[in-house]
Amino acid sequence: MKNTIYITGLALLLGMAFSHLATAQCDAMPGLDGGFEACAPVAGTTTPNANVNCGGWSNGFGSADTWNMPWNPGSSVFYNHNVPASPDGGVVAASIIANVDGEEFLGTVNDLMVGEIYEVRFYQVYAGAQSADGTVRKGRWKVTFGNQTEYSSEIFATTFPQWQAQTLTFVASATTQTLSFSATRGLDDPQVVFRYLMIDGISLELKECGGGGNTGECDNDSFVPKPGEAYVVSAWVKDEVPNQVDQYQGHIALINEHTGGTQTTPFYPSGNIIDGWQQIVGVFELHENTTQLEVKLISINEGGNDTSYFDDIRVFPYHSNLKSFVYDPVTQRLMAELDENNFATFYEYDHEGGLVRVKKETERGVYTIQESRSANSKINN
User: Fold this and answer.
1) Does 377 fall in a domain?
2) How far is the C-alpha of 72 from the C-alpha of 47, rounded, in Å?
3) What is the rounded end-to-end Cα distance, in angstroms, of the chain?
4) 180 and 35 in one domain?
5) Is the pTM for the entire model greater than 0.85?
6) Which of 366, 342, 359, 345 is nearest to 276 (CA)?
7) Per-residue pLDDT tens for 297-354?
8) Are 320 and 326 in contact (CB under 8 A)?
């Protein structure tokens, strides 16, 4: 056996509690309206409204706007009348760039997974008028999520502007973070008096969801059990006992919480004790309305001073096979292979890295199934 978990007089809850059992939610900002449709009653059509206090958003620095598209900003020389409707349709948000950073709007995102990668997707367009003196007008969106800031690609003033899709990547550093957008100058853009950017179709998704909009669900790259399905739990346990026994008492308990209550199922070791270890194996089915699953490792004498060791813990679908492999962290050589029944095959090497011995773990014990030696011949003069 390899890296083990040892428990003395207590129980350990493994990190296998799942708030979303079947799927991971792709929409990571359900409280924010990335399409700004909730802003329709207050959005402007002919004049800016200085209002993004809708759809979960709020104005930050300055006074960003929302517009009903298509827009008709009158005779203002600051806006481009040729801006088309957003690919997301309906209402859009917009910000003026004055000097360095322009107007800002922001919202709060909850229930994030710390360390996970998230993608912010949106559409952007330069909605300001072209310069009369030929100066190239440009801008970009400054997006801040938690303690990380990224910038969109630059967009330029043209006669017939087109919306561009953008994707920015962030790593969550807290479970609750602020997501903010502010218009800012383009690279090497001189101090400006007026630049105007629009944005729409904002979504925040786990990177593993792979895009596809700001609604729906996706498969999770990590293991996420599905309610109503059957699963196998398997592990090896060793109790520290003064006398020889036929069965160890250290065991695993699965705590299945569902809308109707809590179901606890214990799994005890059985079969022969092999090299001091005894196997735990069992089958369980998740309740249809499961909300959380916990895997609990319980020592030989919970509450006492006795110690139990656990190793090679597995939980996997019943209608599947699972193999796992152990590699030396320095040499990267294969040290062990655990088969479908969680029995190990061990590989031993000499100092030169040559395979010299293969051992197989069976129900009757550990047997050497292959052994070889090699050496270079020495010639005496």
Assistant:
1) no
2) 8
3) 48
4) yes
5) no
6) 366
7) 888 765 556 788 898 989 889 988 889 999 988 888 999 999 999 999 999 999 888 8
8) no
